[in-house]
Amino acid sequence: MFTERFLKGKRGVDLEPAERVRLEAAIAEIQTLEPRKIVVRAGEHLQYSTLLLEGIMSRYIDDRNGLRQLVAIHVPGDFLDLHGFPLKVLDHDVATMTAVTVALVPHAELAAIMDEMPQLTRKLWHATLIDGAIHRAWLFRLGRLDAVGRVAHFLCEINARLVSAGLSDGHRFALGLTQADLAEICGLTNVHVNRVLRHLREERLCVFRSSLVEITEPEKLAARGQFNPAYLYIDTPSPFFPPSQARSPP
Q1: 125 CB-contact burial (10 Å; exposed 0-12 / middle 13-18 / buried 19+)
Q2: Cα separation values, 87 from 28, 34, 36, 81, 91, Å
Q3: Which helix (H) or strand (E) covers residue 215, if one does?
Q4: Contact, 228 vs 219, CB < 8 A?
């Protein structure tokens, strides 16, 4: 089923069978796209939103010199541009990081869902609120953490999100990103990221090699990155904190 991973593990939210059937019926097209391909440009008028089924995609903004700052990374199950439905245009570009498979849902279908299924509409809204929570965590990471903390925090976050999607066992996962990508995510230079990864490896916290990540000490890595998974609103057990230590959002 195309929507199997959508909202999976999110706190208090799950798709009912009828909602899953309706959402899948709304899909107009399934596309397979190559890596490093721009899918949406800022300012383009949008007529559909994109549900990511396989692979990794990003949202980013270029500065006046054409240098890119990644502002979001999306994993399978993410409805990555739902906010484009009411806004009609995005203020940033969307691109593939790896080869991806996406489902395109026309905005006309989303409008029909709003009329037909208010409970499903609230669940779609929930997904956009999680995106906002992740964005705030990214601001914290860039504004308050040192280089090692930034990389540690990001690797913990992406691991938790992939655990929720069934794509990580909490310790090992495939991550089709380069060190240059990691540098853009964390606001660092490629050289600095290389030093950070060496430090994490020497401290026996994490190894990132050939697009594979192995987190040997999840709780210690989380502590180094000041990572608490509460902002992800995931019900599934966290690989970082036992339930008694995870702070629940109000």
Answers
A1: exposed
A2: 20, 27, 25, 10, 10
A3: strand 212-215
A4: no
Q: What is the pTM of this model?
A: 0.92
Instruction: Give per-residue pLDDT as tens, 186-237.
Output: 999 999 999 999 999 999 999 999 889 999 999 999 999 999 999 999 986 6
Q: Do residues 75 and 162 lie in contact, with contact meaning Cβ atoms separated by under 8 Å? A: yes
Q: What H or E segment, with its residue span, contains residue 213?
A: strand 212-215
Residue 241 pLDDT class (50, 70, 90 cuts): low
Q: What angle do CA 59, 60, 65 make, to 5 degrees?
A: 165
From CA 50, how far away is CA 109, in angstroms rounded?
Answer: 12
Which segments of 9-152 are extended strands (E)? 29-33, 38-40, 48-54, 57-62, 68-74, 93-96, 100-106
Is residue 57 packed enough to be buried (19+ CB in 10 Å), middle (13-18) or exposed (0-12)? buried
Residues 152 and 156: their CA atoms lie apart, in Å, by: 6
The pLDDT tens digits of the residues spanning 115-172 come to: 999 999 999 999 999 999 999 999 999 999 999 999 999 999 999 999 999 999 999 9
CB contact set of 250 (below 8 Å; sequence gap of 6+): none
Count helices and strands in the chain by DSSP H and E runs: 8, 10
